[in-house]
């Protein structure tokens, strides 16, 4: 069945679902969409309870989408004050948000853990299936640790996108990052542009999102709003309200990682995924 017949049969909303879910690719149906300025990917890590209680209603209020990276690490299984239930995670999915995979135990990706990565990922995939959530197509590197040998394994596991931190270009402690450059950054090494911290102000947020221009996309990394168990990445609720209100009033669009499809599927795959990282490191050291 050709692309035109698909569109006539399913309609545009259904066609978009097919694109996002990977059943068909943009290459068979359309040219790549131009990347607009002010496009921001919103991501939230670690299954924190406040993501359902506080972040969910605020995102819906402002019409933003997002990716929630789910893990059963930390005290997830016993502490339902600080961590979501799977029923709440499923509700995020039903609301239209993306559920991503953050490994079972929040296991950092390294040479020593690569042999366990498949099992860690498949555990979360199975838990998603048990609660009516589609198999995740987006992966969040726990602790922002990355390793070259993880890329073919993540691809084999069906991931189309993977968000890393800003390391090694910037030190973790800074919360600073780099805009995502389709065609330069590998889709399984998408960098974080801003990693929210309790010391952040609106200036930090604006410094990150204003980099979303001229074909670059800003990717924001949040944890709990608030986050009691991980205070070093806590975002106060009032501050988060301020961030979203500013983005909305200034014409920014908040999307999930999976929503990158129409903008990046035709981007060339870098022959050397690490080349852009090394170039940025060299440029940063020269400043």
Could you give the topology of this structure?
Elements: H1 3-10, H2 12-21, E1 39-45, H3 49-62, E2 67-70, H4 86-94, E3 98-101, H5 114-130, E4 138-140, H6 150-156, E5 161-163, E6 194-195, H7 202-209, E7 218-222, H8 237-249, E8 253-255, H9 261-264, H10 275-286
Helix pairs in contact: 1-2, 3-8, 7-8
Describe it for me?
With 287 residues, the protein is α/β, with parallel strands linked by helices. The protein folds into two domains: 1-30, no CATH class; 34-286, Glycoside hydrolase/deacetylase (TIM Barrel, Alpha-Beta Barrel), CATH 3.20.20.370. It is 36% helix and 11% strand. It has ten helices and eight strands. It has helices at 3-10, 12-21, 49-62, 86-94, 114-130, 150-156, 202-209, 237-249, 261-264, 275-286, and strands at 39-45, 67-70, 98-101, 138-140, 161-163, 194-195, 218-222, 253-255. Strands 1, 2, 3, 6, 7 and 8 form a six-stranded parallel sheet that branches. The protein has a two-stranded parallel sheet with strand order 4-5. Strand 1 (39-45), helix 3 (49-62) and strand 2 form a beta-alpha-beta unit. Helix 1 (3-10) crosses helix 2 (12-21). The model is unreliable at 1-30 (pLDDT under 50).
């Amino acid at each position: 069945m050709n692309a035109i017949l698909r569109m006539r049969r399913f309609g545009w909303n259904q066609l978009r679902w097919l694109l996002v879910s990977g059943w068909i690719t943009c290459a068979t149906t359309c040219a790549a969409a131009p990347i607009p300025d002010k496009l921001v990917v919103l991501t939230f890590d670690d299954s924190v309870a406040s993501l359902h209680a506080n972040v969910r209603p605020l995102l819906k209020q402002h019409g933003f989408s997002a990716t929630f990276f789910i893990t059963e690490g930390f005290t997830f299984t016993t502490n339902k004050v600080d961590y979501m239930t799977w029923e709440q995670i499923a509700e995020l999915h039903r609301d239209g948000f993306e559920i991503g995979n953050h490994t079972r135990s929040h296991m950092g990706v390294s040479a020593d853990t690569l042999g366990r990565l498949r099992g860690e990922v498949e555990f979360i995939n199975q838990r998603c299936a048990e609660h009516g959530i589609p198999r995740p197509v987006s992966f969040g590197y726990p602790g922002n640790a990355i390793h070259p040998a993880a890329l073919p394994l993540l691809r084999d596991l069906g991931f189309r996108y993977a968000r890393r931190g800003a390391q090694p270009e910037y030190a973790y402690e800074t919360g600073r990052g780099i805009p995502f450059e389709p065609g330069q950054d590998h889709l399984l090494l998408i960098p974080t542009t801003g990693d929210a911290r309790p010391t952040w102000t609106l200036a930090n947020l604006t410094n990150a999102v204003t980099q979303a221009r001229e074909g670059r996309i800003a990717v924001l990394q949040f944890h709990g709003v608030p986050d009691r168990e991980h205070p070093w990445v806590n975002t106060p609720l009032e501050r988060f309200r301020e961030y979203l209100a500013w983005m909305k009033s200034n014409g920014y669009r908040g999307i999930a990682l999976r929503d990158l499809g129409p903008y990046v599927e035709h981007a060339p795959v870098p022959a050397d995924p690490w080349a852009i990282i090394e170039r940025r490191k060299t440029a940063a050291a020269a400043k």
